[in-house]
Design brief:
Helix content: 55-70%
Strand content: 5-15%
Order of helices and strands: HHEEHHH
Strand order of the largest sheet: 1-2
Structural class: mainly alpha
Radius of gyration: 17 Å
Distance between the termini: 32 Å
Length: 131
């Protein structure tokens, strides 16, 4: 991690929303929320969160590098190649999150008898995420 990149804990604290606090993320516990109302606990390991945040930090640094390339008027094809690399990296992070959601959250909802609600939430998220 370079000096200009934020510490992973700073990245975690920047993820605060009305239902997600730094303490929740640091302990791997937060809730999905629909209209600000949490419907079930959402637990992930500290290691999993750290892996995701570290990947996002690397992506952030890569994007800053692309910004410098543009500012230096580097060739468009070079910039496009780097943008494609960032897109791939973001897609891989999304896949990690989706895999974890399916194996933990959806599986837990099935055991608790809340699978329909969880599937609807997942479909809504995928509608926003997928082009």
């Amino acid at each position: 991690m370079t000096k200009s990149e934020p510490h992973p804990n700073e990245m975690l604290s920047s993820l605060r929303t009305n239902h997600l606090t730094f303490e929740d993320v640091a302990h791997g516990d937060h809730s999905h929320a629909v209209d600000g109302v949490a419907d079930h606990p959402h637990v992930h390991s500290e290691e999993s969160l750290r892996r995701i945040v570290n990947r996002l930090s690397r992506i952030e640094g890569h994007v800053r590098g692309i910004k410098v390339m543009v500012q230096e008027s580097r060739p468009c094809p070079d910039v496009l190649v780097q943008l494609a690399a960032v897109r791939g990296a973001v897609d891989r992070v999304a896949r990690m999150i989706l895999d974890e959601h399916l194996t933990q959250c959806v599986a837990r909802a099935a055991l608790e008898g809340n699978i329909e609600v969880e599937i609807e939430e997942l479909k809504a998220a995928l509608d926003r995420f997928l082009p």
